[in-house]
Amino acid sequence: MLDAPLPGGIGLSHISAYTWQAVDGVCGGSPHIHLACTEAYVVTQGEGAVQTLTLDDGFTETPLAPGSLAWFTPGTVHRMVNGSGLRVTVLMQNSGLPEAGDAVFTFPPQVLDDPDAYAAAATLPGTAGPETDSAALGRRDLAVEGFLLLREALADGDTGALRAFHRAAARIVAPKVTAWRERWRHGALAAAERTGEQLDALAEGDPSHLAAAHAYAAGPTRRGGYGMCGRRDEYALAGTTLPYYGE
C-alpha cells in the first residue's frame, strides 16, 4: 500500500452498476445512506440515473450519462440505477470511513432495529463465487424493499419513516465513531492541516517542503469487488480499507 494519500484524503473506486432487476423493474444497486461522508459520481461510460431521498427534496431521479457529475451530502439516501452499461468513478470524502461502516443500507425497520439481523443481512460470505453473488443480490433486494417503503411514505407527505431511518442508522454506527475519528484525524484532517503548515511556511518565504516532493502512480489492486452499487475496482492507497462486506 502506498503511504501517500490521494488529494484531500479522498477515496476512489470505479463502479460498474449491477444489472440485477429489482422488484420494481429497476436494475441497479443497493440503496444506502452515508452519515459523515459526501459522495460524488463521475460518469465515464453508459447511461443510468441516481435515485435519491431527502427530507427537503423527497424523491428525485438524476439522469447520468458520460461526463455527468452528481454528488450528495450525508443523509441522502441514494440508489444507482443502471440504464445501459453504466460505469462511474466514485470519489468519497474521508477515505476509509465509508468502508468502515459509514454506509447504512435501507433495510426494512424490523431488520434495522435488530443488530444481529442487520449484521447478517449486510455481511457477505466472501469476496467471490456463487454464494457471494447470491448474498449480494439478496442484500440489494432487502435494501430496495426498505427504500420503496421510504419513498412511498415521502410521496404521501410522511417524513416520519425517513426520520426513523436516520435514527436507526445513527444507532447502528454509534459504536464505530471512535475508530472513524482516528481515520479522519490521520486522513482528511491531516491533509488539511498540512496545507495550513505549507501556507504558513510560504508566507515566510520558506519553500523547504518542496524539497520532499514525490510523484506516485497506482493501478487497481482488486477488480470486480462487491460494492453497494455495483462491482468495484479498488485501489490499495493510504487511508482505504477493504470493501464493505459488513463489520
Tell me about the biggest sheet? 7 strands, antiparallel
Mean pLDDT: 92
Proportion in helices = 25-40%
State the total count of DSSP E strands: 9
Please tell me what the overall shape is: globular
Radius of gyration: 19 Å
Strand/helix succession: EEEEEEEHHHHHHEE
Count, helices: 6
Span between termini = 21 Å
Assembly state (oligomeric): single chain
Structural class: alpha+beta
Beta-strand content bin: 25-35%
Architecture blueprint of SSEs:
Layout: E1 11-17, E2 32-34, E3 39-54, E4 58-64, E5 69-72, E6 77-92, E7 103-105, H1 109-112, H2 115-122, H3 130-155, H4 160-173, H5 177-186, H6 188-203, E8 222-226, E9 230-234
Antiparallel strand pairs: 1-6, 1-9, 2-7, 3-4, 3-5, 3-6, 8-9
